[in-house]
């Protein structure tokens, strides 16, 4: 393109002869870089590079025509050539660098084969940064290769016999002088252990041991050694053996008739494998695979992002390029959304909660089979077969539910009034309020049966994960669905999906965490491959229970496509309650919704498109059910305390069982004898709740929840400051 400059990078000749390399290679590494600028005429851009060369202490020559460029290059062998590609009228930069045009082309002289474009920018610092990037990247690498080449050339030319072995005494290299003196061909020796090569019996019996001891200490050994040639003759040699410790293995120059060289590092093995790779063609194959990867047509978005950043780095000043390097490092990790805990210094409660809720049994104990009771799903108890209709709900229960529209609604009252069946009754009321039966086109009796079946499959023996928790989450979900912002972004089908998801989201919960199930090798963990075990089970079982029997099949009356959409939304929401994905969901919500909304609102622009895009609606629904699921720290203090007591008791029961069964204890702080409940609540709020509800409040506007959260947090802090471990302070 006309507005860009073209770099062609050259590497100078290899130097032959061992008398050369000492002086010449060192010279080329430590002498200033030679830069050739090929510019049709001097302008601000060429000046920019000239000044940049000066600043970087490079030597710079300027040529105005291809001919003078070639002449200058053949004299000085520049390390870097910058060709002006803007003034195509004056000369053809492409042709100058094109490999297929023999005459007047510099390409045959280029060893590096490295081209790079620089978009016109006369700023001296931009030029300077570009030069530095080139020097520290490709040019230096070329110098090293050149030095390596020179050293190998010197070895090949040396009159002294030289042998290089690896730490485990496998021969890596012998030079031609060695071949000539010892009568072996290289191929007969490479890859062989020294011990396999016949030894002369003229050496003192303990000489080899002496040498090895010396080398193992990292010391050089020098002395007289009898070697056996291939033809059986013994020759006396003055030998020097030098162990090489350090990066990559380097050489010590041999100065005696024959020299052995021990490389104590595995590095020399690399030398060997590099050579063999070069010859077996696999390096070529890998090279072309790499090229294919770069030209992949189906690019993952993350690959696109990385490529864009890479491209931006090319023309960025050093500090920006370095900052982008750090960005790339983060992007390349898979755990983009999970903050990394420094396990040691972190609070043990946070650690245990994270370990217990956010890993799927990584601390597994092998061979310890624990199988959860393989009970059949509950069917409807016969006395409930023809349940009450909404109209004939007992007055006491109906009265308890009157305040259902308030956030401060007391679910435990309803639990008591319904004999632990709050889900069915609250479900009937809330589903009717949202017109779910009308949407699904199903009789109210079907909904009632469905609610009863689902509730029957919650374990009333769990202190936390029972149907009261499901009813609580349903209540929070319904409350959130009434918020203006939420109403703006969701469709009726989303609302129905959210209510169904909340109802079923923990069905058949065994009162144990995913980690526990994985550690115990439970049937469910095996069925779901240790991934999202419980959430997968809740979702799958919910659909099994629903569709197995027409009597409770609330999906029976909707169209197939609508069913598929609804089903997908329910599954997505139930799976979103899995805590390993907590930060992913929260961060996506913040980045895709909170931030763009804030920006638009600042400019007074319409937010509708952000709220209603299909991707964002999914994020809203996930966030909604997540917040409903763990909203107990935002409930009025008394309710919050009750929930904290219940979850703690469930965790304690798990720890008890882990100890009984000899399973790994997933959350050691939740030991009923030692646990500080206030501390555990402070950690839970700090780590999982605060940020999430800040984001949700910013979206849905929930001042009362935030006020409760604040109060509750202070309450736990107060207890903790008094060093109390219990749910409540002792009576005065
Ligand atoms: P779910 O199992 O769907 O209810 O997911 C919510 C997770 O958060 C569960 O694993 C609970 O154990 C955990 N959790 C909820 N409330 C609290 C709380 N107050 N303290 C500690 N953990 C909690
Ligand atoms: Zn839950």
From TrEMBL:
CDD domains: HDc, PAS
Cofactors that this protein relies on: a divalent metal cation
Keyword tRNA-binding listed: no
Presence of the UniProt keyword Oxidoreductase in the record: no
Residues that coordinate or bind AMP: 465-469, 506, 629, 681
Enzyme class: hydrolase
Domain PAS: 147-218
Binding site for Zn(2+) 1: 469, 505-506, 629
Active site, renumbered: 465
GO biological process, one term: regulation of DNA-templated transcription
Biased composition (Low complexity): 272-282
Top-rank taxon, per record: Eukaryota
EC identifiers of the protein: 3.1.4.-
The protein's annotated pathway: Purine metabolism; 3',5'-cyclic AMP degradation; AMP from 3',5'-cyclic AMP: step 1/1
Pfam families: PAS, PDE8A_N, PDEase_I
Alphabetically ordered keywords of this record: cAMP, Hydrolase, Metal-binding
InterPro entries from the UniProt entry: HD/PDEase_dom, PAS, PAS-like_dom_sf, PAS_fold, PDE8-like_REC_N, PDEase, PDEase_catalytic_dom, PDEase_catalytic_dom_sf
GO molecular function term, any single one: metal ion binding
Ranges of residues in domain PDEase: 389-723
Family: Belongs to the cyclic nucleotide phosphodiesterase family. PDE8 subfamily.
Name listed for the protein in its UniProt record: Phosphodiesterase
